[in-house]
Amino acid sequence: MEEYRHEFIDKNEMLDLHLDFFIDPGQTVINKHFHDWIEIVYLIHGDLEIQVNNRSMKLRENDFVVINPMSIHSTRCMNGNTAILLQIPTSFLEKFMPDIRDFSFAVDLESKDPRVQTKLANIRSTLQDLWINYQFQAEGYVFRCYSLIFEVIYILIHSFSYKVDRKEQQKNQKNLERIQEIMEYVESHYTEQISIAEIAGKVGLNEIYFSRFFKANMGMTFLEYLNMVRLEKIYVDLLNTNMPVKDIQIKHGFYNDKVFRRMFREVYGCTPREARTQ
User: Fold this and answer.
1) CA of 235: how far to CAs of 28, 52, 218, 221, 245, in Å?
2) CB 3.0–4.6 Å: which of 82, 86, 174, 264 could bond 45 by disulfide?
3) 103 within 8 A of 162, measured Cβ to Cβ
4) What is the separation of C-alpha 180 from the centre of its chain, rounded to a whole number of angstroms?
5) Mean pLDDT score of the chain, rounded to an integer?
6) Predicted pLDDT at 3
């Protein structure tokens, strides 16, 4: 739960990617982050709230989402879920398709087109087969896993992709570099009272433009993001220490008690004390 900013993902031992069968007990929030991997989340049971580049959606059983590389995203799971998680580094796919970065993926689960629904069903069944083969690891399973992964990518490229404008790519890259710098500064100084003037100055922007830039790219104000980072740290300490709630708040720089309790309930659906007993 502490992974955010530019996320660095560990690969599976025998594969140049990350594959996991994830069981989330609930009350889990992963703050805004991004990485240079294609990420596919396929929900087996439960539900999952997800936001990708300021677009919110709720996944339910048998839904899946494809998150493009370098897309800012966050997740929230209140009631628990079970999911297959597949993360593929763009650098790996470039070995086979050098212009892969020129493509972006968009999947419409609600499409009424029977041909689209057939393709979606193929992706679901392929992801299920991928997990079964990886789990049992029969002789030669690595070859089977790679063939299934390439099948998923093939379907996405031919049925759910579009070309991305190069100028737009360059602009997005520049914006992400600035967002990265902001996130890294917050990670190092979140316990302090960071003003808009201070953080805007760190990235060479005036206060008004900074506020607009941050909201446009992150879907929240800078103060909301700063408090979300603090909230994540507080939640970890609530579950793993016996420190009084007030002491944990102060430790992580969240001094406004009213705002803290309101945000905590909005994000985790309970009070801090209830979180400790659940």
Assistant:
1) 10, 23, 22, 21, 10
2) 82
3) yes
4) 15
5) 91
6) 38
Which domains are seen in the chain, by residue range? 5-163 (2.60.120.10), 167-277 (1.10.10.60)
Helix 222-240 to helix 166-189 angle (10° resolution) is: 50
Give per-residue pLDDT as tens, 6-24: 444 555 666 788 998 888 9
* Total-model pTM: 0.85
Q: Which two tokens stand for residue 259?
A: 């705002």
pLDDT at residue 15 in the model: 76
- Please state, in angstroms and rounded to a whole number, the distance separating the CA atoms of residues 106 and 101: 14
Spatial separation of the C-alpha atoms in residues 233 and 210, rounded to whole Å = 25
Asked if residue 25 lies in contact with residue 64, where contact means CB atoms within 8 angstroms, the answer is: no
∠ CA 87-73-114, nearest 5°, is: 70
